[in-house]
Amino acid sequence: MNELVFFINNVVIAGSVTGSIYAIGAIGVTLIFSIMRFAHFAHADMMTFGAFMVLLLTTLFPAAGASIGVPTALIMLPLAMVLTAALAVGIDKAFYKPLRAHGVKPIVLVIGSLGVTLMLQGLIRLFSGTGGQSLYVDDRKEIFRLALPFEGVRAPIVITEPQLYLFVITLVAVVALHIFLNRSRLGKAMRAMSDNPELAQASGINTNTIVAVTWVIAGGLAAIAGTLLSLDVTFKPDLSFFLLLPIFAAAIVGGVGHPYGAIAGGFVVGFAETLAVFNWNVLLRPFRDSLPAWLELPSNLAFVGTEYKIVVPFFILVAILVWRPTGLFKGKVI
Amino acid sequence: MSLATSPTPLLEARDVHGGYGSMNILNGVNMTLNANQVGVIVGPNGAGKSTMLKAVFGLLHVNQGEILLNGQPIHNLPPNKLVERGMGFVPQEKNVFPSLTVKENLEMGAYLKPQNVKRMLEQVYAFFPPLVEKRHQPAGELSGGQRQMVAMGRALMAEPSLLLLDEPTAGLSPLYMNEIFDRVKQINAAGVGILMVEQNAKQALAIADKGFVLAAGQNRFTDTGAALLADPDVAKSFLGG
Ligand SMILES: Nc1ncnc2c1ncn2[C@@H]1O[C@H](COP(=O)(O)OP(=O)(O)OP(=O)(O)O)[C@@H](O)[C@H]1O
Ligand SMILES: [Mg+2]
């Protein structure tokens, strides 16, 4: 039973945490692709920017959350979402829109977004410094330990307060997005434009509005993902370095341009990562006596070492591009 | 004829030149269509028929000449502005949103008039009954004829005064073809001007008030539909004898 608890803590919870963050990031990437048809490489830095805005606001008003018993960082999140959405719209106006107006090929926009990524990283570093910082400035990170009511179970299931918030916020974000895309006039217009931009225009849909709405949603979601990740671990100016590959892998695994695919892809990549670094030796321990004596199990039986975690999404990406280039859901072939 | 009695044409194109890049595809096209009329554009492949419809609908840069809707210049206005002014367009290809349901496709047609959606949905369903039971199905899964109904229905949702149709019967079985021609006549009878490109030239000219035979981006013949059908020169070169 202790082994099961170990598995829940290190795979089920850890995988859901990583999966949720990748999923929210990948939704943004996929929405931008489906409306503007380019891979937005600055997306992970928009996530970092969102988290940095939360850090700034939390440092300015560290006690804001105490009165209602919520981490201050979470109270600042909506404001950070607005700021990040504004940044996204501003970046589009300043850099991508002029390129689109020239009718450039998508690859030019991709390169442009690489430039934006470098610029954002520099800017964030300039103000935040290079070290890691906790988003819990004035308050304490609660840790919940749930002891299982079974005999012989010593280890509790451990879940932290930010992880619980992460699950709730992910669920709310996904449901809200679903309702927006399928029920609202603007959301349907967004899907229409993703299907056929010329016909959308011929129906009287103002495509500039849809582009702006896309940036607002992608920016807001990026702020959520960046903040929740920074709450779970710490804020670092180079967060995007660890995020970019997995969220693109997630978007492609799910089928580019497919929001539900991005969610599925996020969890596939998140769980693949945690399973790859999980030490399987622990699960085999109860059966040690029944194993043949000559079989000496190494104490660490993980597929890859934690320091090589980043290769997992890369491997998944290559595999999916080779075997199923349109992704799990049918996405646009790129 | 005095000015007072001459009505402003619904659509007037004067000496229109335009194309996709630097090269012109249209080399001086002229068209006049009055309110409530059916205009039909015929001509060989690559003549510039679709290009002319795109020019009217603001999807093509007009380099020279002018296009007037109810007397107002409209060339080089963006399509969404033209929808506001009462124009509807059904392209030759890719004329539905494949992943949207039939109902959502139709709703997009009334995007600028959301308050009319309910009333217009009822009208379009009554007009194209086969769409009713398909309304929750993605348009990409429909047959060619039903897809054409969705495409026309989407354009009708905005209650246009001028409807542009690019080869609405292309690739359809004769049964659906007649159905679509009947619908076009009905739409016109309800007071909507129609400008339509057609490969089935004889059948289309038979319902046309005005016919325009285009070749190499210019008017070759322009007359009433009946007169063009009766003209032996037109018949010999463009109607297959
Ligand atoms: N998007 C485009 N970009 C560049 N050239 C184009 C484009 N669309 C059409 N053309 C060219 O413009 C010319 C006229 O094409 P258009 O589609 O108007 O012909 P059409 O009369 O509609 O023919 P069809 O009967 O085959 O539909 C053709 O030479 C075609 O190759
Ligand atoms: Mg054509």
TrEMBL record, chain A:
It is a multi-pass membrane protein. Keywords: Amino-acid transport, Cell inner membrane, Cell membrane, Membrane, Transmembrane, Transmembrane helix, Transport. It is found in: Cell inner membrane. The chain crosses the membrane at residues 12-35, 47-68, 74-95, 107-127, 164-181, 210-233, 239-256, 263-282, 302-323. It comes from the Bacteria. InterPro entries: ABC_transp_permease (IPR001851), BCAA_transport_permease (IPR052157). Belongs to the binding-protein-dependent transport system permease family. LivHM subfamily. This is Branched-chain amino acid ABC transporter permease. The lineage of its organism: Bacteria, Pseudomonadati, Pseudomonadota, Gammaproteobacteria, Oceanospirillales.
